[in-house]
Amino acid sequence: MLSFAKMRLMDRHLGSLLCGCFGLxxxxxxxxxxxxxxxxxxxxxxxxxxFGMGSLILASPMxxxxxxxxxxxxxxxxxxxxxxxxxxxxxxxxxxxxxxxxSLSSVLKTMFLALRRIRREKYDVVIDAExxxxxxxxxxxxxxxxxxxxxxxxEIWRGNFLTHPVHFNYYRHAILAFMALAKSLxxxxxxxxxxxxxISSEIERSVRAKLQTMGILPGQRxxxxxxxxxxxxxxxxxxxxxxxxxxxxxxxxxPEVVVLLIGAPSELxxxxxxxxxxxxxxxxxxxxxxxxxxxxxxxxxxxxSELLITNDSGPLHLAEALAxxxxxxxGPETPLLYGPTGxxxxxxxxxxxxxxxxxxxxxxxxxxxxxxxCMKLISPDEVFASTKMLLQGLRVSSxxxxxxxxSLKELLTDYHTLPLVSSAPxxxxxxxxxxx
Length: 436
What we know:
By secondary structure, the chain is an alpha/beta fold. The protein is built from 15 helices and 14 strands. It has helices at 4-28, 53-58, 60-69, 84-89, 104-121, 134-143, 174-183, 201-213, 240-253, 268-278, 295-304, 314-321, 335-338, 373-376, 380-391; strands at residues 44-48, 74-80, 96-99, 125-128, 147-152, 164-167, 221-226, 257-261, 286-288, 307-311, 326-330, 345-349, 402-404, 430-432. Strand 8 (257-261), helix 10 (268-278) and strand 9 form a beta-alpha-beta unit. The protein is globular. The relative contact order is 0.12.
């Protein structure tokens, strides 16, 4: 599989060159833009979101809003092959096109085939939901839809392919950023809830059978622990020794608890190392289940669990969409943008001077090169104090809680195209409440 480092380089150099060439061509052939105040009639909508399983889940309120506003429209998705399984349990799209990222040749081949099928459909609008990819902007040009929506920043030139550019705000939650894309098409909604994941009874039976095979008894309490972050920005990981101390404390205090260390097959080495730190002294109570559950089965596993303890990663948002309580760790990223919403989630974030450091300018590459002090400062003892309260069924006041306090009335999209108004629009504040 192509590494993210290679894809970053391709996007920065090859993407900039191609955007420049086709941007000039597009300027010569540019069609007049339909005024924003004129109602759009959309029958076919294509959403493009490639990387970040969690981001795709966070985009589900936007897709739901589009469906409610355009109930007869077909809404399809272009993504990478790894997200195909997610699209089956997040059934908000009618059709899914995927790109295989195993190698450069497979990317080119599957992208060509997907674009050939997509152009036959003659989409009315393409919504590019990527935050920083130049090549993604180029794909929106090749789709040849009547309208193209996407994020716009003068600091990162992605070509002139957008008919509806939406200013990207670093300080708004990702859910609101995606909602701004819909707003540019005249779609408004104050429903920010993640779309529930659909897990079949067959999947739940399969999960119960696997747990029984592993020796987990009906009376035991299951919590899941995710020590992984995926290949993008491994600096988001909480230290392994901190995880080990937390797990040891939980097992000591709650003898009926079983800890399952989850992960994808590619994450097995890291999970095995974690298991070696805590499993030897807790035989039968700490199990390495990395690679043993498919994505739908992992969601079924979360449903049987009381809690997920995790780094900032895709499983956090899976659990959030399944209404499973979580304890999560942020540092290179900020919960202001990607944190879970609601009262059943506890977030730890130190917010030191260099944190957060991941953004669209550095393409999610942390400058500390692995020395993630922001994560190391999170103490296992303070995490255990909150975890203990959750396992005791007590209400926990999270140090950082993301809320959408005011109903959406007017969400500015692009200041270049909106007419001046005499009064300021009602804002949608996203507040991080500090514990006093």
